[in-house]
Amino acid sequence: MVTVEFASSLRRHVECAPQQVAPGRLREVLEAALGAAPALAHYVFDDQRCVRKHVAVFVNQTLVLDREKLEQAIGEQDRVLVVQALSGG
Predict the structure, then answer these.
(1) Average of pLDDT values for 23-33?
(2) Alpha carbon distance 89, 75 (integer Å)
(3) CATH, range 2-84
């Protein structure tokens, strides 16, 4: 199973424990994990179902650059982390 975790900066809006979901394309994995907390999808995806600009997705600690298609294959032992990207200065 794939582990999908939402960082505390997102969970403060909608609580969602780490999810164990079936492997597949990144979009399928994210959608399956968000099934446990559908209200969280609004914080992760925009109206076109692309990852929002203020959200970063990591697969095994590597930043995912594709925010639209999300076609990266996610395997059995992979870990997906979704965080709210912060900036400032």
Answers:
(1) 98
(2) 37
(3) 3.10.20.30
Taking the C-alpha atoms of residue 76 and residue 48, their distance in angstroms, rounded to an integer, is 28
Dmax (CA) of the chain: 39
Extract long-range pairs of 54-62: CB within 8 Å, 24+ residues apart: 54/84, 54/85, 55/10, 55/82, 55/83, 55/84, 55/85, 56/82, 56/83, 56/84, 56/85, 57/26, 57/30, 57/81, 57/82, 57/83, 58/82, 58/83, 59/26
Is 90 exceeded by the pLDDT of residue 19? Answer: yes
Is the model's pLDDT at 52 over the cut of 60?
Answer: yes
For the chain, the C-alpha Rg in angstroms (whole number) is 12
pTM higher than the cut 0.85: yes
